[in-house]
Amino acid sequence: MTKQDVLSLFDVTGKTALITGATGSFGSTAAKALAAMGANVMLTGRTLSKLEACAKSVSQNGSAVLVAAGDPTVPADVARVVNATVQNFGGVDILIAAAGDNMLKPIQEQSDEQWDHMIRSNLKSTYLYCKEAGLAMVKQGRGGKIIIVGSSRGQTGYSGLSAYCSSKGAEHMLAKALACEWGPHKINVNCIAPSVFRAEMTQKYFEDAAITKMLLARLPIGRLGEPEDFIGAVLLLSSAASNWITGAVFNIDGGFTAT
Ligand SMILES: NC(=O)c1ccc[n+]([C@@H]2O[C@H](COP(=O)([O-])OP(=O)(O)OC[C@H]3O[C@@H](n4cnc5c(N)ncnc54)[C@H](OP(=O)(O)O)[C@@H]3O)[C@@H](O)[C@H]2O)c1
């Protein structure tokens, strides 16, 4: 076995990656990494202007990058975006489901509408994209890779996060169930479960010394995460290197769930 044989396991040249929440911290980093490694990339999110700005930074790597705006919680939008990906790139090989929201609210202060919002933003958006892109992969008949961005909070409770924890735990189980359903089609479905990394939704934690201190007490690695911390896992789970990994939840969390 040569170095080239091993490196070729991670090759995504010419593959097509569809990325939801692409304007976000995780999604944009995954897009840049996959484009840098030669994949075609379709970026999706709710706002066209944000997507176009994001596409500029992703396409600097020379790969083909397209955008398609749509709400990931609306079935017709999801079908249109997956269809646009297939039409423009001839298929979809990798789905990264990174759209999501968070909310810290004790249950007695949380309205039913706010509960529904969290479940819709996280679980339903992920379900809809897995279904549309996964069924396109089944139809193509050349396998595929699905990466769902879950959370440490899909495995650990926290006061005020009932809706978020529930949505993330359900996303992990969605990955496991779809791994069973689509294994025979050579479609791998896995989760990446981060603790806290730098993003718009977590900026306040990075800026608040008391919260940072509390979080660091549970992070053996001794620092909060950066988006670049996920690139290795994204590449592993997007490439042939993970052909026998499915239904797994990867805790990429600085050791948070080890404590
Ligand atoms: N950051 C963390 O510490 C952390 C930890 C654990 C898990 N996660 C998970 O990682 C994933 C990516 O998040 P991120 O950290 O990259 O956050 P981010 O930078 O805030 O990006 C999230 C993206 O999701 C989309 N989005 C936000 N609210 C939405 C809603 N209500 N409905 C549909 N789409 C919505 C937004 O895209 P558009 O506005 O362009 O539509 C946004 O760019 C999420 O599922 C999150 O739960 C994050």
Helical content stands at: 40-55%
The coarse overall form would be globular
Tally of contiguous helical segments: 9
Strand order across the biggest sheet? 3-2-1-4-5-6-7
- SSE ordering: HEHEHEHEHEHEHHHE
Kindly name the structural category: alpha/beta
**Averaging pLDDT over every residue, what do you get?**
97
* β-strand number: 7
- Based on the coordinates given, report the CATH architecture: 3-Layer(aba) Sandwich
Let me know the largest β-sheet. 7 strands, parallel
**What is the CA–CA distance across the termini?**
38 Å
Uncertain regions: pLDDT < 50 for 5+ in a row?
none
Considering the protein shown, what is the CATH homologous superfamily? NAD(P)-binding Rossmann-like Domain
The number of domains is 1
Beta-strand content: 5-15%
The CATH topology label is Rossmann fold
CATH class type: Alpha Beta
Description:
The chain is of the alpha/beta class. It has a single domain, classed as NAD(P)-binding Rossmann-like Domain (Rossmann fold, 3-Layer(aba) Sandwich), CATH 3.40.50. It is 45% helix and 15% strand. The protein is built from 9 helices and 7 strands, in the order αβαβαβαβαβαβαααβ. α2 packs parallel to α3 and α5 runs parallel beside α6 (162-182). NADP nicotinamide-adenine-dinucleotide phosphate (NAP) binds at residues 21, 23-27, 45-47, 50, 72-73, 98-102, 121-122, 125, 149, 151, 194, 196-197, 199-202.
